[in-house]
UniProtKB/TrEMBL annotation:
In the N-terminal section; belongs to the purine/pyrimidine phosphoribosyltransferase family. In the C-terminal section; belongs to the OMP decarboxylase family. The active site is at D294 (for ompdecase activity), K296 (for ompdecase activity), D299 (for ompdecase activity). SUPFAM superfamilies: PRTase-like (SSF53271), Ribulose-phoshate binding barrel (SSF51366). This is Uridine 5'-monophosphate synthase. Keywords: Decarboxylase, Glycosyltransferase, Lyase, Multifunctional enzyme, Pyrimidine biosynthesis, Transferase. GO terms for biological process: 'de novo' pyrimidine nucleobase biosynthetic process; 'de novo' UMP biosynthetic process. PROSITE patterns: OMPDECASE. The keyword Coiled coil does not apply.
């Protein structure tokens, strides 16, 4: 079946293309239904699909080190191309395992390898983008994807927005022309389908299950936290006070499923680079957790604007959240909020109301009252507090509590600890910020799971009372 026209007719005959009236998952009534899953029952057709895809690859001179098929239909196609044309294959898991290595990408690869994504059909491009995000989170470059069939519903532009070039074997227009020519459908049916496609163009959609939200970038941070807590069953913020960003990246891939937030101090990192921080950002999108830079801004407005947006760290470009002292007055919050007006993702901050360290001067009633007032006044940008107690009955403000340990009561330098139960039940914490209790433990992944479970159990018990 070397001829593409023969292949299209065959696909129609095995009911990979159906015409009529079909209710799609979205509830929309469609005049066409395409299901390429059937090809696995027809080895000649399956191979022919793979051969035609490979021809396009040869013609387009795309270079790549490996191939990753989007589960599931594209997997056998990717396998054939990999075996026939001697290319290594990668597989992206749909979910990470809860045991063993917790790897999201299976197969051998090196940092900066280029991987080509293979998909059977593209509509919006969301599955390709989900796969690309997972590969990129591992430091693999993705610049090209190939699909057998493009429904021409704006998938190519959506992918372009994510810096992915789309190669395709067939478009819906070509398929309709071929089927009319071969008298499988009438011109009228073809016109109906074309009209449907014209009226149903897609934009990048939010994906299901909280793993990747392409539009997570447009979901307000408070709402993102609520969704993450319910979907991932975690109120744990891992505080990764490590001095190597490479180590944080590795750790975040291992514990990504267990946390709702990752807190870092970028100014303690020996190996900070914008490239690496972008990798961490991609991981936070893949595993759906928020990224908090614990910068503790505390200067006049003009200076904090520069600290937030310029210099080595350019914090505003990657941190979903930052921490801020209101010591200099509310101008600090105005200044920070103003600096992120032009950033097209939501940004927010947590005001430091009470600190966990012994003798903290913040923990004075008038000071805390001032912080609460400022939080209420700038509630679009200020999503809540760093605190040691519940400061307001307004549940829209998120209370994040550091100084958590199951086994210690403090360190030698003034840090004071309470247990997860004391923090949530006794002090009204929404998020537990846990650092050395996890990073100093022998088995960080296991300890992280323990804190996740303990924190979420206490939260659920209280919710159900
Ligand atoms: O009041 C505060 C405010 C911030 N922190 C930060 O949280 C972590 C705690 O680390 P542990 O290892 O769990 O002690 C750390 O990054 C602090 O800078 C805090 O402890 N108390």
């Amino acid at each position: 079946m070397n001829n593409l026209e023969d292949l299209v007719v065959k696909l129609f005959d095995i009911e990979a293309f159906k015409f009529g009236s079909f209710k799609l998952k979205s509830g929309i009534q469609s005049p066409i239904y395409i299901d390429l899953r059937v090809i696995i029952s027809y080895p000649d057709i399956l191979r022919s699909v793979a051969v035609h895809m490979n021809e396009i690859l040869q013609r387009s001179n795309v270079t790549y080190d490996s191939i990753c098929g989007v589960p599931y239909t594209a997997l056998p196609i990717a396998s054939i191309i990999c075996v026939d044309y001697k290319k290594p294959m990668l597989i992206r898991r749909k979910e990470t395992k809860n045991y063993g290595t917790k790897k999201l990408i299976e197969g051998k690869f090196n940092q900066n390898d280029r991987c080509l994504i293979i998909e059977d059909i593209v509509t919006s491009g969301s599955s390709v983008i989900e796969t690309a995000d997972s590969l990129r989170a591992e430091g693999i470059q993705v610049t090209d994807a190939i699909v057998f069939f493009d429904r021409q519903q704006n998938g190519d532009n959506n992918l372009k927005e994510k810096n992915i070039r789309l190669l395709r074997v067939l478009t819906i227009t070509q398929v309709l022309e071929c089927l009319v020519k071969n008298k499988r459908i009438t011109q009228e049916v073809s016109n109906d389908v074309q009209e449907f496609i014209r009226q149903n163009q897609t934009e990048l959609p939010a994906l299901k299950n909280g793993i990747i939200e392409m539009k997570s970038s447009s979901i307000p941070i408070r709402q993102r936290f609520q969704t993450i807590r319910e979907e991932k069953k975690t109120n744990l913020c891992l505080c990764a006070d490590l001095t190597s960003l490479d180590e944080i990246i590795e750790l975040s891939k291992q514990v990504g499923p267990n946390i709702c937030m990752l807190k870092i101090h970028c100014d303690i990192l020996n190996d900070f680079s914008m490239e690496k921080i972008q990798q961490l950002k991609n991981i936070s999108r893949t595993f759906n957790f928020l990224l908090l830079e614990d910068r503790k801004f505390a200067d006049i407005g003009n200076t904090v604007q520069l600290q937030y947006t310029k210099g080595l760290f350019q914090i505003a470009t990657w941190a979903d959240l930052v921490t801020v002292h209101v010591l200099p007055g509310e101008g600090i919050v105005q200044a920070l909020e103003q600096s992120v007006q032009s950033i097209d993702e939501p940004r927010g901050c947590l005001l430091i109301a009470q600190m966990s360290s012994k003798g903290a001067l913040t923990n004075n009633e008038d000071y805390v009252k001032g912080v609460i007032k400022c939080t209420e006044k700038y509630s679009d940008y200020v999503i809540g507090f760093i605190s040691q107690s519940r400061l307001t009955t307004d549940n829209k403000f998120i209370h994040c509590t550091p100084g958590i340990h199951l086994n210690n009561t403090g360190d030698q330098l003034g840090q004071q600890y309470v247990t997860p139960r004391q923090a949530i039940d006794g002090r009204g914490a929404d998020i537990l910020i846990v650092g050395r209790a996890i990073t100093d433990s022998i088995n960080r992944i296991k300890t992280c799971e323990e804190y996740q479970q303990e924190g979420y159990n206490v939260y659920e018990q209280l919710r159900n009372i």
